[in-house]
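Reminder to self: keep the SMILES exactly as supplied, no canonicalising. Ligand is coenzyme A.
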Amino acid sequence: MVPLADRHFELEVELDSDPEVLRYITGRARSRDEVATSHSQRLALSGKVGGLGYWMAFGSDGGARGTVAPEHEDQGDFIGLMMLPPAHGPDQPDDPTVAELGYRLARHCWRRGLASEASQALLRHAFDTVGQSRVIAQTMTVNVGSQGVMKAVGMRYVRTYFPSWDDPIPGTESGEVEYEMTREMWEARLTVWGLTLTTDIARQVRQWRADDYTWRAIAAAADHQWGTESGGNQLFGSDLCLESARMLGENPEADPWN
Ligand SMILES: CC(C)(COP(=O)(O)OP(=O)(O)OC[C@H]1O[C@@H](n2cnc3c(N)ncnc32)[C@H](O)[C@@H]1OP(=O)(O)O)[C@@H](O)C(=O)NCCC(=O)NCCS
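Structure tokens returned for the bound complex:
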């Protein structure tokens, strides 16, 4: 990923020329002039909090799985635009320690885990390099792909809200959702008793819980399956449930977790 610069303008125009990419954003393709306005706004926001801003993502072989990132953007294929500006919208806090995560990928790059991979890198940057207190992400309730990314990186659902739009697009009637990752969540995120949590692990834990496994049984099953050495510790089982629920964007107090 490289910081957005003027030389990337044509790529932004190309990205926003696909109405499918903007289906849940404007509901239609954007004109060159509209992209020019967004481009200037992005560059202006990039300077507001050091380290936050916008990045253009490039991959090898169109971002195919198993390939490594190119050394230089000229040697790679354009994947999409990744966003981590300071919170700034009307439904966002006026707090420079809060950043907003966003992503917009070229259509041929969807469903390969690329938005999640790049988002994970931006979360790490936000917390470990810039020192943010919280990262939020917002999207239309009907944009399940966008929420898929939020859940995949371990953000949690915060609220559904209903902004008023001058120019509503199909789906606005279902409102917008907000997810977050706090610094506390980031620091606790993947280390549950020495286990590096992944969505696959979280899903397996969920399945065990749905099958009525006790916390102790979950801990024992995790020891067996992933080599942890909790000795079937009940606290490990409950921590694992809590972190798995959070990673999947679910309420740890609700079924099947409670
Ligand atoms: C939303 C978007 C960034 C997702 O990018 P992506 O690289 O395809 O996402 P990933 O492959 O990392 O997928 C992450 C998770 O979401 C799921 N997902 C992604 N797109 C999905 C879709 N259209 N429907 C259902 N689930 C979807 C994936 O299966 C994956 O889930 P998993 O962890 O359970 O396997 C991409 O579709 C896009 O650029 N859309 C247009 C722009 C946009 O809407 N941006 C968000 C505006 S707020």
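Points to follow up:
Residues 191-247 form one domain.
The chain has two domains: 2-188, 191-247.
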